[in-house]
């Protein structure tokens, strides 16, 4: 009796199984093997005794390296809101849309910012460190630019695509405050290898108005997106209700996009910081990659979210902060 197990050469997962219960003529056996020759085959020959032996055969060429997009999650988007502790969001009737997402999808109910004020939290989430900045230093050119490896570098190295979408930004890569756009909420203009590379910066750090067009096809949707609402719509200068209405208008555009409806995808909505006492904030995880109706009271921080992105895409941790932070994979299905 023969067991023939056929495996995909890159993932090593079983894709076909046959058990042949009777001895076959040699010609028939050869025909079966030829039909499977394009795949990786493991053949085990069972005799009627207790002993057995295994024969492993494969095609002569080496197995190809997995493509960078073979991870289970195709797209990861983050929307960063501003300055609201979890107690001001979850259960608040002024935030019905945020609460509907938290109820339908998943809520990290014990999630924390890592510093005060805003900017260090944005840097922590995208570089694994506050990078020695303890203020909302802006514009970046005022001694705030940091030469550190960041999540955009890791994503680009892996062969994936990324963009920062900043609402009310006048032009791509704009690194000065302008109306309701502020650089302290746009971490990527603080990294020297982005802000000092004009072509790279203009291609990846763009106004929020470009998002709708990019979502029009899977091909143009970035693998990673960091979305910064303006000072009003992020709840910093305007009410919670205003920010919640903005989410209600824009989150469906993402969740209903071709990329998010045809590929396993994750959208996280969180806040940069809470109040000065605990820095306890909400993190709402949505999208097809997320368990529905799920809440976790395990303690997480912005470093946990960064570590989870790295883990899902096989990226090396940027610092000890994210490397040691607990993963949030329990939210994923």
CATH class value of the largest domain: Alpha Beta
CA gyration radius, whole angstroms: 25 Å
- Classification by helices and strands: alpha/beta
Secondary-structure arrangement, i.e. CATH architecture of the largest domain: 3-Layer(aba) Sandwich
Helix fraction by DSSP (H/I, runs of at least 4): 25-40%
Q: State the end-to-end distance.
A: 38 Å
The count of strands amounts to: 13
CATH topology name of the largest domain = Alkaline Phosphatase, subunit A
Cα shape: globular
Mean pLDDT: 85
Count of separate structural domains: 2
Question: Main beta sheet, described?
Answer: 9 strands, mixed
Order of helices and strands: EEHEEEHEHHEHHEHEHHEEEEHH
Could you walk me through the main structural features you see in this protein, from its secondary elements to its overall organization?
- With 333 residues, this protein is of the alpha/beta class.
- It folds into 2 domains: 2-57, no CATH class; 68-331, Alkaline Phosphatase, subunit A (3-Layer(aba) Sandwich).
- 26% of the residues lie in helices and 22% in strands.
- It contains 11 helices and 13 strands.
- The chain has helices spanning 26-35, 96-104, 118-127, 151-157, 192-195, 198-204, 211-214, 240-255, 258-262, 302-313, 320-323, and strands at 2-7, 14-20, 40-46, 52-57, 75-81, 106-112, 162-166, 205-207, 224-228, 265-271, 280-286, 294-296, 300-301.
- The strands form 2 sheets. Strands 5, 6, 7, 8, 9, 10, 11, 12 and 13 form a 9-stranded mixed beta sheet that branches. It has a 4-stranded antiparallel beta sheet with strand order 2-1-3-4, with no helix packed on it.
- β10 and β11 form a beta hairpin.
- α3 packs parallel to α10 (302-313).
- The longest helix is centred in the last third of the chain and has 16 residues, at 240-255.
- Mean pLDDT is 85; it is low at 1-71.
